[in-house]
TrEMBL record:
<dbReference type="InterPro" id="IPR018488">
    <property type="entry name" value="cNMP-bd_CS"/>
</dbReference>
<feature type="compositionally biased region" description="Basic and acidic residues">
    <location>
        <begin position="655"/>
        <end position="665"/>
    </location>
</feature>
<feature type="compositionally biased region" description="Basic and acidic residues">
    <location>
        <begin position="63"/>
        <end position="78"/>
    </location>
</feature>
<keyword id="KW-0547">Nucleotide-binding</keyword>
<feature type="transmembrane region" description="Helical">
    <location>
        <begin position="249"/>
        <end position="273"/>
    </location>
</feature>
<feature type="compositionally biased region" description="Basic and acidic residues">
    <location>
        <begin position="632"/>
        <end position="645"/>
    </location>
</feature>
<dbReference type="GO" id="GO:0030553">
    <property type="term" value="F:cGMP binding"/>
</dbReference>
<feature type="compositionally biased region" description="Polar residues">
    <location>
        <begin position="674"/>
        <end position="686"/>
    </location>
</feature>
<keyword id="KW-0472">Membrane</keyword>
<dbReference type="InterPro" id="IPR000595">
    <property type="entry name" value="cNMP-bd_dom"/>
</dbReference>
<dbReference type="GO" id="GO:0005222">
    <property type="term" value="F:intracellularly cAMP-activated cation channel activity"/>
</dbReference>
<keyword id="KW-0812">Transmembrane</keyword>
<dbReference type="InterPro" id="IPR018490">
    <property type="entry name" value="cNMP-bd_dom_sf"/>
</dbReference>
<feature type="region of interest" description="Disordered">
    <location>
        <begin position="36"/>
        <end position="78"/>
    </location>
</feature>
<keyword id="KW-0716">Sensory transduction</keyword>
<protein>
    <submittedName>
        <fullName>CNGB3 protein</fullName>
    </submittedName>
</protein>
<dbReference type="GO" id="GO:0044877">
    <property type="term" value="F:protein-containing complex binding"/>
</dbReference>
């Protein structure tokens, strides 16, 4: 028996089972609360997913079908395993050849505005076109093409001709086109449209094989001059490339510079041709045949077209006419190119010029009215940060030019992810959120700016797009209570308060530069007119938010009961008035209440007995007065006053005893003991707030003297 362990003195429970029971009870209580709210307001959805409607129960599929599906899955998985190859004791994954072929395969129709492969092909054709434009005049005039290098020139010319033919036969007949607002993608219709266009005629002329004349007149590059007729492809490539570039103005500047260089190149070729016609070195005006022939002629062309001057005077009539035409064309062409360059650069810097003009006008206005320098510096800072962060002063001006659908598409891509995180709008109609995205206003706050101040009437809600804000509180209003970052929301209660009259409870200051979205109450009400279900849901959430805001701050955590005690609800706290009246809690307060009731009963009985004895004394005293014969007629008033004295002096003795009792040292209890003329009234009344139930009232009133 000594080896046996002593039995446990108390009741023991399994901690795991106890935890599981508490979790089940908690979930059941939460579920009960949710269904109660569901019965009160059917707008709120149930937390459980609704089952899908199934009119009839289908029998389970036969095992044969399952086997077929498994075989299909295995067949799909096998090709992935076949794409591995072993090499040098290593296993490499080899992409399937079909994927390459699918990617390289030409589509049946080509969208010239969005297909990047088509733009790449146009670039290849443009390179071939520039080769012909630059080198055909060069080879025709300058003696750079010789029998020793003819094969190389011929090979490059053949490659360029292949590009021309592929574009004519393969790519251009597949390009989509618009007809009456419809996009035509039919292969036959696209081919007919291309064959009926002027572009097709020029493309055909550009590939005519005039090179067959080489056999009769020799290898002369002049027979390839028709290759320069494919200029439509060159301009189409410029348009498509500018549409996809982020900074298209850079390409425009390069292209304009290329135009100028090409015109100078043509002029240099013409000058060499004129010199060869007059005879190299025959006069001071022509090229003397020394040095690099192309660079010397190009230098002469630059000085002529730009009208720099300092050139030898022409001697013959041909030279004079040639020089006059050069000067005339130089002034016209060069001025046109300079004007075009100015337009390109001006369009590229139009936004920045507008920003500078706005800033200069604002600074001039502030100087006119003697605005303090501190305010002026903050205004300049706002202009600089706004321009650096978004590249424009007002984003809405850019979006106003677009249709509403495009504005919505851009707003969804930019702001939907932020607004969708707001708990207030979860469960609302998606279209309502889309309408709200178009109404959001973006505002930039500088470091230290007050977004809202304590005591202000709140009529809008704020969503942080970028940056941080700090909520300040404390006695002096400088203590940082919380820091809100991008995606956070504050001020949402102001949208839901009746009349928008909810006052701000704290100061909110921008910590650094902050970009916020603002939604005011008027705008939200205009949107909710078209979405009544979302309005009901928001009103329900508004009640919950306002209740949580009105609750007192949470006290210390209450220790959860263990064991079977968790099956019963927690005991409600003793009312505050009850505590204040009796200065105790629980059984101690109840005992004092019962003691007070007994003392009140004893006091009422003693008062009744005193009243009876006083009435008897009055009766006896009146009898003695009537039997008295020694009274004179002048004394009735005095004698009548005598019986009144006991009535006035009947109550004072009890009142005189109380001060003597009060003069003694009082006990530490809240209530004094003894008899009193006060009565205790206890009543229960409904609370003005629905969530607080009933209120216990305890009143003490003084009795009226009879």
């Amino acid at each position: 028996s000594s080896a046996q362990k002593p039995a446990p003195s108390g009741f023991q429970t399994n901690e795991y089972a106890d935890g599981q029971l508490q979790e089940i009870i908690r979930k059941m209580r939460a579920r009960t609360t949710v269904y109660k709210e569901k019965l009160k307001d059917p707008v709120l959805s149930s937390p459980e997913g609704s089952p899908t409607a199934s009119p009839k129960k289908k029998p389970p599929p036969p095992p044969k079908e399952e086997k077929k599906e498994e075989k299909k899955e295995d067949a799909e998985a096998k090709p992935e395993e076949d794409h591995y190859c072993d090499m040098l004791c290593c296993k490499f994954k080899k992409p399937p050849l079909k994927k390459y072929l699918e990617y390289l395969q030409l589509p049946d129709n080509i969208d010239s505005y969005t297909d990047r492969r088509y733009v790449a092909w146009l670039m290849l054709v443009t390179v071939a076109y520039n080769w012909n434009c630059w080198f055909i005049p060069l080879r025709f005039v300058f003696p750079y093409q010789t029998p020793s290098n003819t094969i190389y020139w011929f090979t490059i010319d053949l490659i360029c001709d292949i590009c021309y033919l592929c574009d004519l036969l393969i790519f251009q007949p597949r390009v989509q086109f618009l007809k009456g607002g419809d996009i035509i993608t039919d292969r036959v219709e696209m081919k007919k449209f291309y064959h009926s266009s002027m572009k097709f005629r020029l493309d055909v002329l550009s590939v005519l094989p005039f090179e067959v004349l080489y056999f009769f007149f020799g290898f002369n590059p002049a027979f390839r001059a028709n290759r320069m007729l494919k200029h439509n492809t060159f301009f189409e490539f410029n348009d498509r490339l500018e549409a996809i570039l982020d900074k298209a103005y850079i390409y425009r500047v390069i292209r304009t510079t290329g135009y100028l260089l090409f015109i100078l190149h043509i002029n240099a070729c013409l000058y060499y041709w004129a010199s060869d016609y007059e005879g190299l070195g025959s006069t001071r005006w022509v090229y003397d045949g020394k040095g690099n022939m192309y660079l010397r002629c190009y230098y002469w062309a630059v000085r002529t077209l730009i009208t720099i001057g300092g050139l030898p005077e022409p001697q013959t009539l041909f030279e004079i006419v040639f020089q006059l035409l050069n000067f005339f064309l130089g002034v016209f062409v060069f001025s046109s190119l300079i004007g075009q360059m100015r337009d390109v650069i001006g369009a590229a810097t139009a936004g920045q010029n507008y920003y500078r003009s706005c800033m200069d006008n604002t600074v001039s206005y502030m100087n006119t009215y003697s605005i303090p320098k501190v305010v002026q510096n903050r205004v300049r800072t706002w202009y600089e940060y706004t321009w650096d962060s978004q590249g424009m002063l007002d984003e809405s001006e850019l979006l106003e030019q677009m249709p509403t659908k495009m504005q919505l598409a851009i707003a969804i891509d930019v702001n939907f992810a932020i607004v969708n995180k707001v708990d207030l709008f979860k469960g609302c109609d998606t279209q309502m959120i889309y309408d709200m995205l178009l109404r959001l206003k973006s505002i930039v706050y500088l470091p230290g700016d007050f977004v809202c101040k304590k005591g202000e009437i709140g009529r809008e809600m704020y969503i942080i797009k970028q940056g941080e804000v700090q909520v300040l509180g404390g006695p002096d209003g400088t203590k940082v209570l919380v820091t809100l970052r991008a995606g956070s929301v504050f001020g949402e209660i102001s949208l839901l308060a009746a009349g928008g009259g909810n006052r701000r409870t704290a100061n909110v200051v921008a910590h650094g530069f902050a970009n916020l979205f603002i939604l005011d109450k008027k705008t939200l009400n205009e949107i909710l007119v078209h979405y009544p279900d979302s309005e009901k849901l928001l009103m329900k959430k508004a009640k919950v938010l306002l209740k949580e805001k009105g609750k007192p701050p949470p006290g210390p955590p209450v220790q959860q009961p263990r064991g079977l005690a968790s099956l019963f609800g927690q005991k409600q706290e003793t009312p505050k008035l009850f505590k204040a009246m009796f200065g105790g809690r629980g059984r101690e307060g109840l005992a004092r209440l019962l003691q007070l009731k007994r003392e009140q009963d004893v006091q009422e009985k003693s008062n009744q007995t005193k009243i009876l004895t006083q009435n008897k004394d009055k009766i006896n005293f009146t009898k003695t007065l009537n039997n008295s014969t020694c009274r004179t007629e002048n004394k009735p008033e005095q004698e009548e006053k005598k019986p009144v004295e006991p009535e006035a002096s009947s109550a004072p003795p009890a009142q005189k005893e109380e001060p003597n009792a009060d003069a003694k040292p009082k006990p530490p209890a809240v209530m004094r003991r003894g008899t009193t003329n006060e009565s205790l009234i206890i009543s229960m009344s409904p609370s003005p707030r629905a969530e607080e139930g009933e209120i216990l009232k305890v009143e003490v009133k003084e009795k009226k003297q009879k």
